[in-house]
Specification:
By secondary structure, chain A is mainly alpha-helical. Chain A is built from 3 helices and no strands. The longest helix of chain B has about 45 residues. The chains are: A mainly alpha, B mainly alpha. The interface between A and B is medium-sized, with 25 and 30 residues.
């Protein structure tokens, strides 16, 4: 019986440290502080294409919008000049 | 300039049609990848903004010294275009930053000083619009301040610590990237010249209308 207890105790003494010496579980991405882009969920990934297309669209819209505004303003001024000129001509004929 | 306008229009249109071919053909930057291609419109918009700010400032000095109305008209046209190209720069920059830095905006020296410069020209336009009689001279002084601001914007990245790429990036670019960039800068400057001529024409016609009004009243 004493021998049996000795074996159990010795086994316990061996198993304890051995189990403690097992390699720690692999750290997760968050613990490492680095997550490869490929392993990110889709909603976390930021694709460049929509941002790039928006940037070019902004540039084109701003340029064409401005040209359109010059066109509109010039048209208004030309109409006013034409109206005054007609009025002056009509007045000089009387 | 009237004769040269259609010729310049065709050249600029052809340049903008060919620019995407060059941009697509330019190599990818190793770290940033696709998003770096915003650079081919972002940098030229700032080049034009600085050019236009200088035109506005020089014309404003000329107006204050000589009182020539034509110089004032040129300053006003240039100020509006400074605002336009600054807006393109201020909007394309954050779209790049969102991917490159992870944020839309950073209150660092380069971005903040660029925004301040843009706001100075916005003040110029507001002054011309709502300043009433005699606002031209005050606006001219604002235009000179706007021009004086751009060297600080340009060299701010070298003077202060900022997250924005340094001024050394462009001179050290490989030829395969520098070529398309210079081509886009030339196209933007051509577009700027066309817009400036068109805007100046509008201002001249406004002056004609005002003179006509005064003549009728007399």
């Amino acid at each position: 019986m004493k021998r049996f207890l000795f074996v159990v105790l010795a086994a316990g003494l061996w198993i304890g440290p051995l189990s403690a010496q097992q390699p720690p579980p692999r750290p997760t991405g968050a613990q490492e502080g680095f997550v490869p882009v490929e392993s990110l969920p889709n909603q976390e990934k930021l694709t460049a294409a929509p941002l790039l297309m928006t940037a070019y669209a902004v540039a084109w819209l701003a340029a064409f919008g401005y040209l359109w505004s010059i066109w509109q303003r010039l048209g208004r001024v030309e109409r006013e000049i034409a109206a005054i000129t007609r009025r002056v001509e009509a007045g000089s004929r009387r | 300039m009237k004769k040269a306008f259609p010729f310049l229009l065709v050249i600029v249109a052809a340049m903008f049609a060919y620019a995407p071919v060059l941009i697509v053909g330019a190599p990818y930057e190793s770290e940033m990848g696709l998003i770096q291609k915003i650079f081919y419109f972002h940098v030229p918009s700032w080049v034009v903004m600085f050019t236009s700010g200088t035109v506005c400032g020089v014309a404003s000095i000329r107006y204050l010294m000589t009182g020539r109305k034509e110089a004032d008209r040129l300053a006003q046209a240039a100020a509006e275009l400074t605002l336009l190209f600054g807006l393109i720069g201020l909007m394309t920059g954050p779209l790049w930053a969102r991917k490159a830095w992870g944020v839309w905006w950073q209150w660092d020296a380069k971005l903040t000083s660029a925004l301040v410069m843009w706001l100075i020209f916005a003040a110029y336009i507001l002054l011309r619009r709502f300043g009433g009689p005699g606002a031209e001279k005050l606006a001219a002084v604002v235009g000179i301040f706007g021009m004086a601001n751009w060297p600080f914007v340009y060299w701010s990245v070298n003077i202060w610590r900022t997250v924005h790429p340094l001024t050394t990036v462009v001179p050290t670019l490989p030829g395969s990237m520098l070529g398309p960039l210079l081509f886009c800068i030339a196209a933007f400057l051509g577009l700027y010249l066309l817009m400036l001529v068109a805007r100046l024409h509008l201002e001249r016609r406004r002056a004609d209308l005002e003179a006509l009004f005064l003549a009728v009243e007399d």
